[in-house]
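Notes from the 1:1 (GR / supervisor)

We went over the backlog. Supervisor wanted to see one worked example end to end before approving the batch request, so GR pasted a single chain during the call. The sequence is below; no edits were made to it. Supervisor asked that the structure be written out right there so they could see what the output format looks like.
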Amino acid sequence: MNRTGTSENLGPRAGDDSDRTAPTADDLRRTAGEGGFRSYAEGFARKLRSGELGPLPGIIGLVVIGAVFQSLDQQFLSPRNISNLSVDIVGTGMIALGIVFVLLLGEMDLSVGSVSGLTAAVFAVLNVNHGLPEWLAIVAAMVVGAVIGAVQGFFSARVGVPAFVVTLAGLLAWNGLMLYVLGASGTINLQEQGLVHALTSYYFHDPAVAYGVAAFGVAVFFLASYRDARRRRAAGVRTRPRSVIALRTGAVALVAFAAAYVLNRFEGLPLALLIFLAFVVGLGFVLRRTFYGRKIFSIGGGAEAARRAGINVVWLRISAFMVSGTLAAVGGLFLASRVAAVGQTSGSTMLLINAVAAAVIGGVSLFGGRGTTWSVLLGVLVIQSIASGMVLLGIPTPMQSVITAGVLLAAVVLDSLSRHSQKLHGRA
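Structure output shown during the call:
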């Protein structure tokens, strides 16, 4: 009899599981990747049933949009239209990338359209009217965007004014300031031989460039997926089976090389698209692989819990609005480059709607804590494909606005239903 009054070495009693040894780390590592493709597919199906739809609605929507518009107009999937589409998505896509950082916090930035217009006007006035070197005018425009984001973030995060109110005031203020900066002329044409003009007019005509970028992207995707799987398996965490990694890599390769083939049939790889993809990958790395990005996600999951964990919530909120303002400036420069001018219609409300819709349709939640930069790529393709198809069909501009608003509403409703389903299943 030991000191606690219990007997020793008496063997297991009936129904007692004390003889079962707890799983070791090696056991966990061995089981981490078990189940294969079937087990992974069953887990994926359970996520869908619980409301975790991810990018699936956007992918289905993009396929349906392509099929419908192609059946109505054979020019929709032509190399020329696809090439134009790949450039048209960049300006709105850049702005939407900035909105992702704010949405992940569960906030909203309604001023990004006006900020893009104001910063483009600042660039045009400094470069065209005052002769400032183009690179310096670009830096000045981006600094203006960052400062605007910092001011709005300060009032929201430090003072406590709801971000919706702060950025709504900004929408009006920055649009008015843009009109003031442009002056009486109202329009400033950009230099045709300038760097900003070349952003959307330069193409890599050598087919090897497009195929090389596609091959590089596929290789990076595979290596990143394989490395992540190895790390998770070594830590004893369930991960994707190798068959799933191979299948996903094959799908990415199919899309990448098909896109390169189509683009090469027209002018080649657009510089604007290459820059946009670099931003998508780079910012995606920041959000998923850095402490800063993980803190952004943690605040979106619960600001109070993040604060108690020692995260500087105020600074993170301000920095997210700074990112949003800076990328709005970048997007404004691409939009100005597309039309080779900055005018009174720059930074319209429709631009804001498209940018928000691009993020939400791609899978970024309005409630915070869920989404990626790749969501923007998918969402902006959906939005711009709809716009391109409606132009080809000659649908009047007012009806285009109605249809775009309907798509945005459908995306928000789906996001709300998804979140409700996740709560019912204990996943939110």
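Supervisor's comment: Confidence is low (pLDDT under 50) at residues 1-34.
Batch request approved.
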